[in-house]
Amino acid sequence: MAREALLDIRDLSVSFTGYRGVSRVLNGVNLTVGRGEKVGLVGETGCGKSLTVRAVLGLLRKPRARVRGEIWFAGRNLVGLSAGELQLIRGREITVVFQDPMAALNPVFTVGEQLRDVIARSPRHQASERETWARAVAILKEVALPDPERILHAYPVQLSGGMRQRVLIAMALVNEPALVIADELGTALDVTIQEQILQVMRSLVDAKGISVLLITHNLGVVRETTDRVYVMYAGSIAETAPTADLFRAPKHPYTQGLLASVPKLTGEGVPRGIDGMIPDYLSPPPGCRFAPRCPFVQPRCQQPPPWVGVGPDHALACVLYDGAPTGLRS
Fold first, then answer.
1. What are the tens digits of pLDDT across the range 265-276?
2. 327 pLDDT band (50/70/90 cuts)?
3. How far is CA 113 from each of CA 125, 128, 144, 171, rounded to the nearest angstrom?
4. Residue 79: count of CB within 10 angstroms of its CB
5. Is the Cβ–Cβ distance between 208 and 2 less than 8 Å?
6. What is the pLDDT of residue 148?
7. 170 φ, ψ to 5°?
């Protein structure tokens, strides 16, 4: 059953003007996140995943960055809102857990000072200093941090990487936003700590009914964490499907190559990888942007690929398939 869309990105294109010309990065991206849904956005480094997040948050500088399309969140189009209106939405209704917690936390303020500032932004905040402090202690306990009183008095440099990541999760969830965007969550951490962080995140968002957009290149994390997946290549959505369906039967040549690039714990064979590189955004190929690297390329790939449905909620942009309309957007 389809969920009501909380975040609905429609035909989003982003380009940048530089001294060498215009870089056309995002190329008509369509993506939805339902209420209470966990959605993954995967792809190679440089494919436009984090740029999509920055566009949603209104963090792209104009006039150098040109944003076209629509970004609907809870019934409002974020494109065109003033900086003040976007600032009210950020931190209250949409929050972000960044990849590098040391860069995201201010080193000259204690964890308690930073967490109390976040709590104070809540439109529901009418609490005293003591109640605010108690809420900060409670959220650190929820993210399984030991001795929260000590951590609130500590500076970020005094904490381990895993502890700092948990602090960021606490900051993202303390005001119970509608949507959390997790950008490469736990990438720089030991795999065992990363799994603990992801488990904490999963438990809290499920308990609070919060929607999640997970940005990552780690396919294992996506498989264990999300309900649906979007596969992005060179600023375009190549394929989308329920997570189980995508891993069981990937259809797009890029998705197949991406999954074939992952080493297997059983040691069965050597990962094949994908020949070539992501195209130069100053002069992207016409039609399908994956065509120069695709083993099945053909002349009609020089035209924009059709968006076809190949199963329930499973669709892709490729000339190799003839599917029935599903209502999904490319």
1. 665 666 677 888
2. very low
3. 16, 15, 20, 11
4. 17
5. no
6. 93
7. -60, -45
Q: 65: which 2 tokens?
A: 């960055």
Token duo for residue 105: 């936390």
Say how many residues make up the chain.
330
User: Cα separation of 81 and 89, whole Å?
Assistant: 10
Strands (DSSP E) contained in 224-267 are 228-233, 236-242
* E strand or H helix that includes residue 152: helix 148-152
pLDDT band at 326 (very low <50, low <70, confident <90, very high): very low
Q: Calculate helix-pair angle for 161-173, 111-120, nearest 10 degrees.
A: 20
Question: Is the separation of the CB atoms in 29 and 154 below 8 Å?
Answer: no
* Higher local confidence (pLDDT), 122 or 215: 215
Q: Which DSSP helix (H) or strand (E) runs through 42?
A: strand 38-42
What pLDDT does 1 receive?
46
Closest CA to 1 of 315, 242, 318: 242
pTM, whole model, 2 decimals?
Answer: 0.90
The count of other CB atoms within 10 Å of the CB of residue 155 is 15
Helix (H) or strand (E) holding 25: strand 21-34
For 95, the token pair is 């929050």
Q: What is the average pLDDT value for the chain, to the nearest integer?
A: 87
**For the segment 23-59, what is each residue's pLDDT rounded down to a tens digit?**
999 999 999 999 999 999 999 988 999 999 999 999 8
Task: Give the neighbor-by-neighbor strand order of the sheet with 211-216.
Answer: 94-97, 179-183, 211-216, 38-42, 228-233, 236-242, 314-317, 307-311
Contacts of 267 (CB under 8 A, 6+ apart): none
Burial label, 270 (beta-carbon count in 10 A; 0-12, 13-18, 19+)? exposed
CB 5 within 8 A of CB 33: yes
One-letter amino acid for residue 270 of the chain: V
